[in-house]
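Help! Submission page says 'invalid entity' but I think these are all valid:
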Amino acid sequence: MDMNKIEKKWQDQWAKTHLNEFDKRSDAPKLYVLEMFSYPSGAKLHIGHWYNYGPTDSYARFKRMQGYNVFQPMGFDAFGLPAENYAIKTGVHPKDSTEKNIATMEGQLQAMGAMFDWSAEVKTCGEDYYKWTQWMFLQLYKKGLAYRKEAPVNWCPSCQTVLANEQVVENRCERCGSEVVRKNLTQWFFKITEYAEELLTGLDKLDWPEKTKNMQRNWIGKSTGCEIEFDAESGDKIKVFTTRCDTVFGVTYIVLAPEHSLALKLTTPEQEEAVRAYIDYASKANEIERLSSTREKTGVFTGSYAVNPLNGKRVPIYLADYVLASYGTGAVMAVPAHDERDFAFATKYHLPIEKVIEKKGGETELPFTEDGIVSGSVEFDGLFGEEARDAIAAKVSKLGKGGKKVNYRLRDWLVSRQRYWGAPIPVIHCEKCGAVPVPEKDLPVRLPYDVEFRPDGKSPLAKHEKFMNTVCPVCGGAAKRDPDTLDTFVCSSWYYLRYADAHNEKLPFDREAVDRLLPVDTYVGGAEHACMHLLYARFFTKALRDMGYLDFDEPFKRLVHQGVILGPDGNRMSKSHGNVVSPDEYVKEYGADAFRLYLMFGFSYTEGGPWSDDGIKAIARFMDRVEKIALKVRDYKLPRGEEPFGQEEKALNYARNFAISRMNKDLEAFSFNTAIARLMELVNAIYKYDGLEKKNIALLKDTVRDLILLMAPCAPHFAEELWHLLGGKYSVFEERYPKEDPAALVLDEKEYAVQVNSKIVCKAMIASSAGNEEIEARALSLPEVQEKTAGKTVKKCIVVPGRLVNLIVG
RNA sequence: GCGGAUAUGGCGGAAUUGGCAGACGCGUUGGACUUAGAAUCCAAUGGGCAACCGUGCAGGUUCAAGUCCUGUUAUCCGCACCA
């Protein structure tokens, strides 16, 4: 077969007959199968795309043949930094390069033969899309879920620009090499923390990989503890958060993060110089370096003291950057005896260490950080762990100095980007009225084309006079637009909703259309999105639900991560490694179907692994064998009379039904490699049967027919062609996927492994109907068994029906 | 440091969840067809001459362990001073 020609032929035919589109009139149960959309950075599809989309398409086609009304859309996550960096390097405008890349990729995605519903295509950089991304921002703003605050960012003083974390290499600017500093800038945030608890508990009912759910759990990082207020002698109140309030009598000092709002206020004149120097020092360390636990602890004394509300003790107040401003209250009570970090700090700065917890039944070695028996804490002495924490928290609350409190590690989502190639933030800044949202009727806020995006210190849009200057929608006075754009993760947080109603000009999506298709039944994509995209999308869904636009809680019911195909050398494919394998040459030589089959067969889908093309020829041979036998059997004439149905026919029928049964299970489970293996076994069985002198032609024809149907989801063009050649009605995908006949899977007799004292002695065919005693008797009668059991008595006999019999003798 | 995953022939990978380890395929070897090769087809293929030994390593539970338990090593991934 000339696969390239055949593929084109059927692709055209499928498009012409709208075979790939979701059937809006059908009343078959819907099934929304979604692959994470592509980012059009390179011009071509790489192996990763094929690996993500090919096998998943086979799953979608399989479900379609099972009778589901399948919706499988595709689109492009088209905004983003790479296109902008490419523009800075080459001068090609991001819009131009992106559109060109999209056009190429569309062609390639079509050539793959996946049944993408192109009528629902979405491109996030299109005005008709980002208009609604901006609309989303406005709804979140209205709901109080979008707000502005000052936050630290990575700032390169030489380029005069904010850098993304990925652009900071060893605390230096990736581009110019200058040292990056932390700087506070006013930025827009989404209040994802408002949903922390639901994002956490919602995970339990999702059919997602456990690993991914755990990553999200850790990311959200719920921790239950106690907030306690310490009074500073200046009159200020310092709130600290602790999970170990049972150690509160062991507090020997207080630590504030260097960015804490009280840091300078609490500093005494004698300490001022040292404190300012320290704050400056801490601001230079970037976040990643700060968080390194191997880093030696540093800090400075403020000169002030605070009072422990439980024992009235006066303790010094320090600043240290091992305390994070962004977590809890940005201040901690230090208990060096029972916390490793405090212990290290106290040791270095010669601060007192007071033991207030004793190890149960053993020597207490400091720092002792496990639960233990409280001591030196007056009325709480003798209490243990949780019991002690409950009692002390109750006391704290009685004193009016705090109480139990839950904290999350999750932080609000910073969505402002000082970049060009993204959706402009729909906000106008007015001197009189402040930050004013753009009225919905004025959307979209268009991203201008003629912008100087080369970095020279300001947000690219800030230099565009025409864009920036506008009027305040409230007072009508002169005002400026927000010069920032939205993080591209905002665009991808709702695209799966837009697919359902991709061309709606009045709304982001029609409620009815979304109710019809959502949630996504099966979502397939890389594991690298575990804590970003997948969390943000869940947040959007919940927020939209609470605003009344949706009525489900979770966007993705089932989630599957494909593995990663590495370079032949075992490293991640990258230009710098020089190990990039392009799918194109293989597709050209063997065809899309062969390439897809090989990707399915050669790897465990969720594991991936190093690329090797060792087996691709075998796939071509396999397809060849299928074609040959199919055409050969097609030309057999059906005899008039009755056809034989003996042992050989039973065996073939068993192989056929076994393959059917396993294909159904394996495809459902994304176990593509074993599914293809089952097809190969069936082909082998057909060949074997065909080699017989006398054969049942009708059975053989039926079996070949089933083989083509079974294969159709995995090799769609190839199967469609064979189906056509065998006189089948267009399209093979309108046929039902075969279902096994359970009767054909019941064998008259089964092969048993016969063991004596748990060692295999021989094998024996035993009737399926035999009872345990019969099986035991049969086993004992075997000569190999008699040899081993001669002169011994059988103490026990274990029978595993249909598999094994084990005689214990002694 | 914490958390998770993985470890099976020369290779990619299977194993009805505790029941014949190595399905399927690659590779290799032998054979057939061919002037020859390619392609194709047939056969063999975990190791060992054998008794036997074999699922990273050391123990354990069990009639029976790749699978369960304890410990350990290596690799990969995620988080990383979260009080």
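Support: the input was valid. A stray whitespace character was the problem, and the output above is from the cleaned input. The two ends of chain A are 64 Å apart (CA to CA).
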